[in-house]
Design brief:
Number of strands: 7
Distance between the termini: 79 Å
Strand order of the largest sheet: 2-4-5-7-6
Number of helices: 8
Strand content: 5-15%
Amino acid sequence: MTDVLLIALFAFLGAAAAGLLGAGVLRLLRHRSLVVSLSVVAGVAVAAMLAGTLTVCWAMFLSPHDLYVVTTVVAMAALISLATAILLGRWVAARSRELTLATRSFGDGGTFAAPAGQPTAELAALARELAATSAKLDSSRERERALETSRRELVAWISHDLRTPLAGLRAMAEALEDGMAVDSGRYLRQIRTEVERMNGMVGDLFELSRIQAGSLTLEPARISLDELVGDALAGADPLAREHGVRLVGDRIDEVPVEVDGKEMSRVLGNLLVNAIRRTPPDGTVAVAAHRSDGGVVLSVTDGCGGIPEEDLPRVFDTGWRGSHARTPPAGAGLGLAIVRGIVEAHAGRAEVRNVRGGCCFSVTLPTA
């Protein structure tokens, strides 16, 4: 038993010395290639075995011939181990370089494509994560391009829509100032109308900026749908009468919702105004509300004739007004963007689809 303990002690001391030396070498070479690190690890393992074996052999006073045989066997094992470690390191390093080049391509604005070679399980997992990240970046770039396009269109349309009433206000003010206005009362009424329209545009811009900045503060309260829709219909009735449009709201379920009443009134108001202005005289704008599996659905159906299919994904974009909406009554194209922002702030969603003779805007809200 004592001999076994001595052999174990000598083997441990020899291996520990080799291990400490290898740890120091690894620390010095920790920033070098993976091939170097794997070679050092293999060398440490072989050196530890060799040191332990030789220490025990010397302690056992083996003959020179036996010691030579043991040393030769261990040395051959060390060569094979080192060669295997170097080959493995070169293979892993090559796969890492391929993955680095592929990563650089999508970092420069391209799309990530995984290398064709068979990597290790860890590198394969990393490649899958990089592919998923690349897909997210592509989607983000696409959204950024769409937002930038909508911003440019918004600036152009806002500039146009502000310049036109400003030119009219200047002309009317100069006519009043020079005493050239035959009917000063009509001029003053027109000035007030233009100022109110510009004030509405500025208010929409401010509301949209709050939504996009994430500073929209909601004050939710429990409200009945029929009460919410009834107030919105009453507010839109004068505009509907002016355009000769009939408002219908007889399919309203008495479902409670917990929303910010002021903001949701703005949502319904924007949808109703947009529907009334797009519906021809003698047309109908219908409002409905019902409970569904996904929550509470509010819908506004107009008689605009429908929206081109290629434009449907852009309806709620900032500044979108359609190909024919360039006149002042069309506004600045912010109403539907505000609708989507307010609805999403309520953890809901806003959608649009074409129906027979027009389109249907629907708002889905969580149930109270």
